[in-house]
Amino acid sequence: DAGVTQSPTHLIKTRGQQVTLRCSPKSGHDTVSWYQQALGQGPQFIFQYYEEEERQRGNFPDRFSGHQFPNYSSELNVNALLLGDSALYLCASNLGQGLPEAFFGQGTRLTVV
Amino acid sequence: GEDVEQSLFLSVREGDSSVINCTYTDSSSTYLYWYKQEPGAGLQLLTYIFSNMDMKQDQRLTVLLNKKDKHLSLRIADTQTGDSAIYFCLPKVPDTGRRALTFGSGTRLQVQP
Q1: Sign of CA pseudo-dihedral A92, B21, B70, B55
Q2: Which residues in chain B touch residue A58, judged by CB atoms under 8 angstroms apart?
Q3: B39 touches chain A (CB under 8 A)
Q4: CA distance B48 to chain A (A)
Q5: Under an 8 A CB cutoff, do B101 and A45 touch?
Q6: Side-chain-facing half-sphere of A13: CA atoms under 13 Å
Q7: Which end of chain B is least crowded, N or C, by CB within 10 Å?
Q8: DSSP string, chain B
């Protein structure tokens, strides 16, 4: 079991550009959540996908959007990048039943210059 | 954010015991998790305790729960340099397999050789 995998691991973008980050959940997991972790902070919830729909959303602007595919993998898109979007973006998956712990990927380090 | 309080920093010498404390607000929490984040990495579920338990021991880790005071602690025996990381305490309420996780800033544990 590969666990949660994210790509790419590192990314540098220019202010104003758009970025797409990808996540494959742990085998058997159907729910994917995305978190943004700025340096020195705890992760902040962006949104969650289940059954290919956005089910919950944190306090992030509409520039942040996502998608979930039939195979449960997910993408996070950020438009009109700002310098403040520089962070570690973490994907977490769970099954939504039983012990509700989340399994996290290693993250994508996004730097906006 | 506001759901848990942890001290921001703890420094110990290699071989000593570390105790990381956490207070939380939601008394309906059913599971209480400890996540570990090594530098530049994603989060790893370290251990958890059910709310009907007072203590759980797992090798070098001991989790103590005081439900009355809503206080959770993580003790790491014989702390090693590889234990240097940020530790996040997360209480979790029932039904919420798909509820977003709310992280505080965590406790940064620094182990001095």
Answers
A1: positive
A2: 100
A3: no
A4: 9
A5: yes
A6: 25
A7: C
A8: -TTEE--SEEEEETTS-EEEEEEES-TT--EEEEEEE-TTS-EEEEEEEETT-SEEEETTEEEEEETTTTEEEEEESS--GGG-EEEEEEEE-TT-TTSPP-----EEEEEE-
Question: Quick one: how far is CA A24 from the chain centroid?
Answer: 10
A108 with A57: CB under 8 angstroms?
no
Q: Is the separation of the CB atoms in A32 and A24 below 8 Å? A: no
Instruction: Examine residue B91 and say whether the peptide bond preceding it is cis (omega within 30 degrees of 0).
Output: no
Q: How far is CA B7 from CA A79, B28, B48, B108, in A?
A: 36, 23, 19, 8
Q: Is B56 on the interface with A (CB under 8 A)?
A: no
pLDDT in tens, B3-23: 789 999 999 999 999 999 999
- Six-digit token string for A78: 């950020």
CA–CA dist B32, A56 (Å, integer): 22
Distance between A80 CA and the closest CA of chain B, angstroms: 25
| pLDDT tens per residue across span B64-113 | 999 999 999 999 999 999 999 999 998 876 555 566 777 888 999 999 99
